[in-house]
Amino acid sequence: MSAEGISQIITSLDIIYNPASTNAQRQEAQGFLETIKALPDCPYWGYQLALIDNGYNNIVRHFALNLLLSSITSYYHDWDRPKKLAVRSWIVELATKVSPQDPHYLKSKIAFLWVEIAKRCWGECLLKQNPSLAAGLGNIENTDPLAVPENKDVYQFTEEEKIDSWMSMDSNLLELWNHSQITRELSLIIMKTLFEDIYLLDDPIVSKRRTVLISLCPEIVVAERILSAKYEQNDTVRLFVSQSEGWLLQWCQVLDECIQFLIFNDLSNNNSNVFVNNSDINTTKSYYLDTTVKLLEILKISLFWIIPLALKEVDIITKLFKLLTIDDMRIKLLTIECFDSLYNKPYSNPEDNEWLVNSAFNNTAYEIFFETYKSVQINYEDIDYDDYTLQKKIVEFLIILSDYITSKESIKTSDRDFTNFYKLILETTKNESPSVSAISLQFWCTMLRADELSDQPDFESVLPELLENCANRLINYVDSDPESIPLQYLNYDFDNQSDQQSFVSDFKKMNDDIVRIIVCKKPKDALMWLAERLNNFFSSLLGMESLNNLNLTYKGKGSEAYITAYSQFSIIETCVRGITRWQIWYKEDDAQEIKAYLTDQVDNLCKLLIMLQIQNPVLVRKQIQTLVQFTPLLKDLNSTMFKVLERVIETCTFPYPENASDEELENIRDLRASSGTELNRLAYLMPESLKNIFSELEAVIDTILSQKELISHEIVAFKSFLLVVSQRSSLENKEETFKRIVDPELMAWSDPNTMKGLSDLHWFMERLGIVKIAEYFRSRGITASTNLLEAQMDETGRQLKKQLKDQWSSVFPIRATRILIQYSIEKLDHESETYKNLLKLWQPRVEPILPYIFQLIYQIQAYHNPANWVGLPDEVQSFVKYTTMERFWQQGISIQSRESFVDENVKAMHTLRDFADSVGHIIRYTREYSYLMIGTITELEETLYVDPKNASLLWKALTEESVGITLHSWRHMINLVVRNVIKNCPMDYFDLFMLGFLPQVFIKLDELLLQRWNRVYEKGLRLEGNESDEQLSEEMLEEHMLRQLTQVIDRMLIDIAGQKVRTSLTDRQKETREFLIYNFEVLAPFLKLLCDIISFRDTRCSFNAILILRHISQELVGLNDERVDKIILENIMPILIDLICDKFYTDAHSEAAYTLSILYIGERFKSDYPLQLLKNKLGVNQETMANFENVFSACQKSRERKNCLLTLFNNARNDGNPDAYIEQRNKMIQGATRAKKKNTVDGLEGGLGGLFNTDD
After folding, report:
1. Domain containing residue 531
2. pTM (whole model) above 0.90
3. CA distance 160 to 158
4. Which residues contact 525 (CB under 8 A, 6 or more apart)?
5. Rounded average pLDDT over 1193-1204
6. Same-domain pairing of 869 and 774
7. Nearby residues of 505 by Cβ (< 8 Å), 6 or more positions away
8. DSSP string computed for 240-251
9. Is 348 part of a structural domain of the chain?
């Protein structure tokens, strides 16, 4: 390259990095730089431009190093021997000449160059001498010696072979170590990078030479005498080693000096192992801190594969404990990660285990861990990421330590006291951050479930404090005061409310489990604790407020009284479940005596709870739910349970106070509805006890119903209660009782008014009262342009509203029918006689009304279609349009506050808009119950499925009039109807019914998603930046609901195909997947829908769809069906290739690459098309593809094949930015799992000591 060419490179880089450059100028400059990469002498010019001697700036040098990296990764296999050696020598020279002024990214890039060469040639002659060591024989799980030829003459290498195999690499590293401070730092970066590629990453280049590389690393790191003590000396491999003491000793000598200075400010032991100027104490301290960090970074990567004997010799654990006492967050974090590497792996030698255990399980170690944990002070109002990460890492490591106690090979013995260790873990459980506290919860659950561990005195000593702590956590953090400490931590930890709520739910469940198990193990003590706790709370100011305040605050500021009181009832329920579990678990001789005592105590607690007078209806609702939870324990104590029953019936008819606010009325309605549910729960928990007073119950309920103060929903709750008691007990004349309760309700389906309302849309509207509303509107002069929110309700309107309200409560009998079926079969084993008898009674009654239910759904969907309003007066059309509007409030999306949204709806109740809201509500409510009804019918075995025509009739009812179906309604339809229809279909009817059902479902949902996602894309593209907050909020809300809908469809597909390998599926899942795979008319639309979901701009949905595809890919290619192969090649593979090329889907790249590798292998055996497809889509040449297939075919593991594919993509899509390769690598390192360590026994992955067999 001429001086002019170099000048042009520099000019191009100036243009790219100049903010004043235009895009066109940058593209032209980038285009020129790309052409440089293809030049044969590109590596030489990369070397020349990178040399510090030549005086180029860092931008030019960085580009030059990228030229070298690009050349090595793309063309190394094509170079002749002189070029390979020349490039290697240039890289060594560049490493030697690094300057203290060089930024870190230049040093890192040189290290990458060094490692890329090493991976390709280091130790190559060992493979040539013993081809059996080629890829695949040595792997991370293999620790058996490898057989080799016995003739020692084969180990005589030529000078060329030694040079080609970079036999001097260790010597080169030692020269860097000894040359200067900056080259020493670089040597550490090089070795860290090398070890990451070999041990942490499933690097496709490494995979070809894994056995050699994982044999050489311990040779250069561990002292020769230690290796010789464990393995027979291998003189051939020792040729690659430059120092007998090994790198570990070098690192630890320097680390000792760093520790000595950082703890004691002592430089007396400085024996030139460090490069430091002692004149400036701050510079000296900074140097020691940085050196310590670098050493810990490499130890973190190395400790899990270095043999324990070597680690014991350098006393590594003592060093790590000393490092924890240094007041530097970086050092503490890396030290904890080193502990993690050391302890989170198996050791086969008992002496090694004993060394680890004795080092960590002692009071001195506990104290250091405790002080380290306490030293991390978090300001919850301004959380520091690094400090918070360190705190979590400490707790995670302590839980790793706890595995030594809870594992099958537990170190727990009668003479080993772990009291202080348990206290240490408990201290972390008490952390104010729920995320930190949660880390240790599984440990407590595991301990509590292992009687041989939890019954020991040392563990029992922490139970009272653990019980109190976990009970205090049984609150709803999401609804608490925004300024509360736990919620501030949660808001920091979670970006969206959905993930936050999911975590809080799991967190609460884990704490609930701990409380329940402690109560089960210590029931007497727990009941005393509970009584004292309840007494303390309800006698406190907060407790008295919760009892006496009618208008409690339920969420946010001022909600403490409600939330804390609510949690007390949750704790009672947990304790009751714990006592119930004790009755099942405890089998000792004194069981009956203890049971009698516990039953008496629980009975007293229940009576006290009955007498507790609470004013707030929302809290009363929780009180009633808690009372019913006592049923399993007290069902034989009729006097107490009948008092509970009486209390429940009272709340079913809880009176509405005069002048109550709208919110109060709504809360009481909810209380009455919830009490109806609890009444039915009592029925199926204690039917035999209630059977004895069945006639009295009928009389009481008849009296209540005769007063005509209940709405239809409340009436059916009482009837279903009687139905459940009669059918689940040994009551005589069950069938007659069933007919007496059920048949009058079902008669409503054949009522002339009902049938007329279902026959035609206009009659359907008339049945809803729209004709009467239209007449009233005309009398008020309402037109299509009238703003109903501004038209106040008059007395005539109020009377009409009252009249229609009574009509709406029973407009269609869908809810009553569904409740009677659902409650009667709830939680019944389908093999039980009770269920079978009910099935005989329900089937002949449900089958005739199925057409009516379908027709009801159809009319509701038709009502929402504006095309069906043609012919109606304008003002009626305007009104109907109002009724079909769905208004939602969504946290984080809606601009309007939740309070103002609620206030607006309350104000609307006093205007004519209330008519539209009420009709809209009853329409949506009826549709929802129609969906629920279908879901319930699917639980009646073959009732829905016996007639295959029902598949088309149901789908027609749901979707033929789909124009007005909102995203929200689609989501409910799929969740409540479609998924249940699929999941509950008896396998005897599955093939026939689903052949008619699933293809329609897949095709329609695919059309829907494509249409709605395209609309979102178009709107997004059309945004001009001047939209109002309200407009943006509406757009965001629609997109949010579309994402929710896509997620639900994803889950539906998972129901059918699963997301696991076939061997992990249930028998039903295996059958449904087989049905899908072997019926092309179902499979084709399924794959089309799956591909489209993968392509949508939603990473979560895309990821889940790819997981489905990954686990059916092997079966797809195994079909050897040309039609399926065509879909794979023309649809699936292109989608996956495009996705991996798109940075938007970064989180899904790994799974997509796994899937693509499976499909590529399967289809590549059949034709060259996959090769050409990949080549053309990525725009690479034939040489690149040949090299890729060479490496790809040598990969033995799926992870290696995945990484090989990702490497190809990274090289092809870097758009002139080779740093993309490094970015991807860093992500892969962050995602590297601890499985690597756990599969590494005694620090060996195979090969060491057996690389060549030295036995005679």
Report:
1. 522-629
2. no
3. 5
4. 464
5. 86
6. yes
7. none
8. T-S-SSHHHHHH
9. no
